């Protein structure tokens, strides 16, 4: 087993006033040659959007873009004709493929929006752009891992053009779990959203992360009540 620990404090930090963001990997004006990506996981942004503000229309192509709202509501519009609102409990996927434009706004004038924006490098180029959004039952992740993304359209969660699997879990203190890799050769990036946990014999606090590869499984133990996002992706060169 190989591991790499990324503390919360080691992330890039951007404060644009209306947007406060922490970058787990190199993004925009933040560049760290040792933190460009973890396998096919290219971007993990921890964003806070001020009330009444948002991202104007901008383009993407050949990237799988996943949004996971943590607090508040975010309105999405795109060049495919979709106008939707995503909120806590929802998972949004946009396969940019040959190219798409979209915007994201916090329409609430009183509350911030907190969400994770995640980019995964696809295994197919120039696909037809697509959009999907689902609402999951948060209770289904109590003291266990709930699958929220996979490569398969018929599985639980959304699907993307990559051999990747994402899970969310809410664990009570002292609860344990074993994560078994879905595909040989993949790696896993564990991002602790809340609380404290021991993952692969490494202590994680809120917003710490650990990458794990060259193994088939690892152990997870909640030291306190905690929330975790586990992202399994191919280990690209």
List the main descriptive attributes of the protein structure presented here.
237 residues; mainly beta; Jelly Rolls; 7-stranded antiparallel sheet
Low-pLDDT residue spans? none
Q: Biggest β-sheet, characterized?
A: 7 strands, mixed
Order of helices and strands: EEEEEEEEEEEEEEEEEEEEEE
Note the quaternary state here: single chain
Strand order of the largest sheet: 1-20-17-22-15-13-14
Structural class: mainly beta
Calculate the terminal CA-CA distance, rounded to whole Å: 18 Å
Number of helices: 0
The CATH architecture of the largest domain can be given as: Sandwich
> For this structure, what is the CATH homologous superfamily of the largest domain?
Jelly Rolls
CATH topology of the largest domain: Jelly Rolls
Strand content: over 45%
